[in-house]
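re: ur question from yesterday

yeah so i grabbed the chain u mentioned. its 268 aa long if i counted rite. heres the sequnce exactly as i have it in my notes:
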Amino acid sequence: MDVAFLLDSSSSIESGSYIDMKKFINEVIDHFKVSPKDTHVGVVSFSTQARTEISFTSKQTVDAIKSSVLNISYHGGSTRIDLGLIKTYAELFSAQGGMRTNMARVLLVITDGKSQDGESETKQQAQYLKDDGILIFALGIGSGIKMTELKSMVSMEHYVFLFSSVRQMLPSDKASEVALALCAVARTSNAIIHPVITQHSLLQHTVVSRVTSDDLECALMCIKHSLCYSFNFNASSRLCELSNARKADHLKDFVYDHGSVYNELMFV
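ran it thru and got these structure tokens back, copy pasting raw so excuse formatting
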């Protein structure tokens, strides 16, 4: 999954609150498996101008991304959500920004206000992203937001999170709620099953082991299970094993297994 955060850095955000907003982003990131082969994270900030702070081509490890998030500067200025959306589309969700077309693509817009350039421009710029398959969520903070603008941006009306203040965002369960929503959307996107290799299985990472009627049932189980990234299926025994890992990350656990087919899950 490619996950982008569009972060409000306008003057309505106090410097202390801005630090807490960055901490919140990092708590959300903690729920992802960030690596070169798994989730990629990018961040764009916006105020009077928009800036790409972290691209999908940046070093994609949890520690590197979280460190970069904390180092994002506070800029001040007006609230130009539309410019942030333009920058996100051009420099993150693009070939030059490192976007992967074989992964789910999700954007979370975080703001405490309404765009200075008007709701219609925000809606139009968001539509370009949505038309290209990017799923947009919005997180509104405080009383200065414009609910109709947030709803005009998001891919579905219930993809809006509301907090009365930055302080209300700080309990870790709030970050978990947001992260799980992003992950759930990715898993319900179009899934592609890749039979990687026959006569092999990935061992030591099984989260569910069950006899199924066929490999299709096994694949559907994997899609529905929040921790499943790959699965082994043995046609003779009809044993389905869901794994919370992938072959590339655990080559030592990828072994010969007569009759078994190893499959990986990808989302588009």
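noticed a couple things. Residues 172-187 form the longest helix (16 residues). also The chain is about 30% helix and 30% strand.
anyway ttyl
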